[in-house]
Amino acid sequence: MKNSFFNKHALVCGSTDGIGKESAIQLAKNGCEVTLISRNEKKLIKTLGELSTKENQSHSFLVADFNETLLLEKKICDYVQNLNKPIHILVNNSGGPKGGSLLEAGLDEFRQTFERLLIANQIMAQAVAPIMKKNNYGRIINIISTSVKQVIPGLGVSNTIRGSVAQWAKTLAIELGPFGISVNNILPGYTTTKRLQEIATNKADELNITPDEVMKLWEQKTTLKRLGTPSEIANVITFLSSEKSSYITGQNISVDGGRLGV
Questions:
Q1: Which domains are assigned to the chain?
Q2: Which of 29, 161, 194, 233 sits between 20 and 30 A of 94, alpha carbons compared?
Q3: What is the pLDDT of residues 133-169, one digit of tens each?
């Protein structure tokens, strides 16, 4: 797919760990120029050094906290304005809230999660859409969750907000389609990330078993009987970022080892 990424530039959010990081690495490996976006500058510098530059790309990073949306808006607008080059790809990705039931969740938790997962996506889309429209080309990929199709018990706030992000993205796909811009959602299943480890630890306390035993239970809930890896999710993100995905938009694409079919 390298030809798809020649002279292409991607913004990848939450790109210092897990799926976001692996997506940035794969895009760079395929010849894309990448701007990493995350709140931890030390991790950004480390990840920047791991990106391929075999196609003479000039990668960069932006320090931004998706919990601080007013500051995020200013930073991304300033960055885009001073960039002096097109943006072709946006990968929206941010960590989810802690687990727990809906009725036990505080209102502040709802507000913070809504800001981080939906308002931040809106800010990023508004920043890049005018550039994509001007070039009649764009790819916006949102990393969400399989809870969009089948809610996950114990993740009440996440289930609620992720669903709103999915509907936002489908609406955006309709609005941007005439300009050659596709918008799609990736729904990862059980994937070996720090986030999954945190959820497993919380679930283990609830069930009075070990986190490893929780992971084994989750493996059995997939058709493939194993957990996914960040690189497997990134493979699909890379494809959707390419020119080869030109007739796919407005979709919720599950990458879950068959979890929903079990």
A1: 2-189+230-261 (3.40.50.720)
A2: 29
A3: 999 999 999 999 998 998 888 889 999 999 999 999 9
